[in-house]
Amino acid sequence: MDKGFVQQSEEAHDEPRLLMLETVHEYAWEALAEHEEVEAMRGAHAAYYLRLAEEAEHRLLSPEQENLRAALAFLIEQGELETALRFATALWRFWSLHGHHREGYSILEHLLTAAGPVEFASAGSSDCSTGRASMGGAPVGRSAERAA
């Protein structure tokens, strides 16, 4: 594996991870762009990491932090606010446990503000507002309006 296009990284208390060389990563992006498949790939990436965030133990998410950020950013860029809010709801405990309060607060505030006074169908929206409050902000959205 030493001389290949993929390198193995062994981190303490984690399973070995495979890392792609940056030049291979850039080539893959160019190939996707050439075939107009970037959006489809980013959508599949976001769906995978949403599922991971919802199902995985929060300690297992740490090595995936950059992938989680990229997936959430894609959903926000695409205007998929309800799905992004669902993703943020799954991540708020991770953010809180790992000291990423400012990042979590900023994302939750952006999503809840952008969504406006919309009642989200997902049960997680109230959890998201609660998570925002537990990270130092006041709840926003319909649940906050009802509380006022």
Characterise the protein shown here:
With 148 residues, the protein is mainly α. The chain has a two-stranded antiparallel ribbon with strand order 1-2. The protein is flat, with a radius of gyration of 18 Å. The protein contains seven helices and two strands. A hairpin with a 7-residue loop joins strand 1 and strand 2. The protein has two domains: 1-36; 39-147, no CATH class.
Strand neighbour order, sheet with most strands: 1-2
Write down the Rg: 18 Å
Strand content: 5-15%
What order do the SSEs take from the amino end to the carboxyl end, as H and E? EEHHHHHHH
Distance between the ends: 60 Å
Number of strands: 2
Going by helix content, strand content and strand pairing, the class is mainly alpha
The general outline is flat
Helix content: 55-70%
Tell me the major beta sheet: 2 strands, antiparallel
| Count of discrete structural domains | 2
Produce the secondary structure layout:
Elements lengths: L5 E4 L7 E4 L1 H13 L3 H18 L9 H13 L3 H17 L3 H15 L8 H11 L7 H6 L1
Antiparallel strand pairs: 1-2
Give keywords.
148 residues; mainly alpha; two-stranded antiparallel sheet; 63% helix; disordered C terminus
